[in-house]
Design goal:
Structural class: alpha+beta
Shape: elongated
Radius of gyration: 30 Å
Largest sheet: 6 strands, antiparallel
Strand content: 15-25%
Length: about 475
């Protein structure tokens, strides 16, 4: 078979800097111009087709380092007298002397210390797969750049920045396995000791979890330890520390909540868990829009103490260490901090559900939330806190759209913050348009939709006037139709 497709694939995919080109389609450049020229950068460097560089070794590659070409069905590489040279199968090439390449050859751009090590591969994959890989790599680079911009703006500290960078890299290549970390013995794995487990006052409980994709409940068994006395008490429930011994050590501390009302229907517990599961779904959809700060809701599930009288039900969720902040309630109140992300998320849920639901009562630690409330258009379900249309109207009465709303494409022209000092997407910082779109319902909302949304942008009026403006316009329209004017 004629060799017609060649590429360079980075030899070490796991440990190397993610900014390094993972895959280089050599043959596409050769088909266009007869050769593929590689250098340190393509910016202000005419004639360079592909930039290969490493943050670890910034000067390892010369401006015009090497080129690959095909002659009479054979592949060749030439070192353009680069400073640190080219290694072919660990042997340094003579400058400006063609060396033949074969499928599987190893190419090192620079010295033996370089992390720019590639394998030359011929006809191993279809060419279109390579284009997909390049698009994925470009997306990874863009996400990493966005994170760095946010860190430069002071939104993320270095610890958070590295944490999110690792997640971006892991999401891009979920199939990578670091085989160096495979344990040789069970004794090497950290976790509980036998003594800890034997001393614990554990009990078997039924565990009920809601599977949102299938909208069904599942019952399994867990081994837990629950403190005898509550550590906190609210208006509705008592909170107990609980350790789930089926989870990893250090990740097993939960809060188990028991209603103060002895005759609380079990339905209430299950409805609250379903509501939080729906909010978690909304958070995933929100994050797909690439907001400056991703959010999440903790997993909520139900346990039943089968060895206790009456087999009581308790609501469970992960314990959240840190400063707990309430950003809004279920009737239009906003915290004095007035952060952009929580309120933009609430607005997003209304848009995303086509006006069916609105998530409010946002609270938690940082942007990990819990105990939300949902208002539904028909006021069905979601407990006593669901006040339906009234709650939705109260939210829009006080909500002022911010730069995150603008990023999402849902900002209302007459409901904007006059002074916005909250989180801003990096694209808006630089003045460019947002990269990800969200279909706006602003021209098609009906029913309980915000009454200000369809006003044209020429109405630059105060929030107080905006509140009564739809009423005056409606009265004026009636008088006009009756012939009064």
């Amino acid at each position: 078979m004629e060799e017609e497709f060649a590429e360079l694939n980075l030899f070490e995919q796991y440990f190397t800097d993610q900014s390094i080109q993972r895959n280089i389609d050599v043959s596409s450049y050769i088909k266009q111009k007869g050769e593929c020229i590689l250098g340190r950068t393509t910016q202000d460097n005419p004639g360079i087709d592909v930039a290969i560089s490493s943050q670890k070794f910034m000067t390892m590659v010369s401006r015009r380092h090497a080129s690959i070409k095909r002659t009479n069905g054979r592949w060749f590489i030439v070192d353009h007298k680069s400073t640190n040279g080219v290694l072919l199968n660990d042997k340094k090439l003579e400058p400006r002397v063609e060396a033949e390449l074969h499928d599987g050859d190893k190419l090192t751009f620079g010295t033996t210390d370089s992390d720019l090590v590639y394998t030359f591969e011929v006809n191993r994959r279809r060419a279109e797969h390579n284009a997909q890989k390049q698009q994925q790599q470009q997306q990874v680079n863009q996400n990493l750049d966005n994170l760095q911009n946010l860190a430069n703006e002071g939104i993320y500290d270095q610890q958070k920045l590295q944490e999110y960078k690792k997640k971006v890299i892991a999401d891009a290549s979920p199939w990578l396995l670091n085989v160096e970390n495979t344990p040789y013995s069970a004794d090497l794995i950290q976790g509980y000791t036998e003594d800890e487990f034997r001393r614990a006052k554990t009990e078997f409980v039924f565990r009920y979890e809601f599977d949102f994709p299938t909208k069904t409940w599942e019952r399994t068994v867990s081994i837990v330890e629950i403190e005898a006395t509550p550590f906190d008490k609210g208006n509705l429930r008592m909170c107990f520390r609980m350790w789930d011994w089926t989870k990893a050590k250090g990740k097993n501390l939960y809060v188990a909540k028991l209603s103060l009302e002895r005759n609380e229907p079990q339905y209430t517990y299950f409805a609250d868990a379903e509501m939080q599961s729906l909010c978690k779904y909304f958070s995933h959809e929100f994050n797909k829009q690439q907001p400056p700060k991703p959010i999440d809701f903790v997993e909520a599930w139900i346990l039943q103490r089968i060895d206790h009288p009456n087999k009581p039900i308790m609501a469970c969720e992960m314990y959240l260490p840190g400063k707990y902040v309430k950003h809004s309630n279920n009737y239009g109140w906003c915290s004095p901090e007035d952060r952009n992300t929580p309120h933009a998320f609430s607005h997003f849920t209304y848009e995303h559900s086509n006006g069916t639901y609105l998530v409010v009562d946002i609270q938690g630690v940082d942007d990990l939330y819990t105990d939300p409330q949902i208002h539904s258009k028909d006021q069905r379900g979601f407990g006593k806190g669901n006040v339906g249309s009234k709650g939705i109207q109260e939210f829009f009465r006080t909500h002022l759209c911010n730069t995150v709303c603008e990023h999402l494409g849902i900002a209302l022209p007459t409901r904007r913050k006059k002074v916005d000092i909250g989180t801003k997407p990096p694209q808006l910082m630089s003045g460019s348009s947002r990269p990800v779109g969200l279909p706006s319902r602003s021209n098609s909302m009906s029913g309980n939709a915000n009454p200000n949304q369809n006003l044209p942008e020429v109405f630059h009026v105060s929030p107080e006037v905006q509140l009564f403006l739809p009423f005056f316009l409606n009265q004026f329209s009636m008088l006009w139709c009756s012939g009064t004017f």
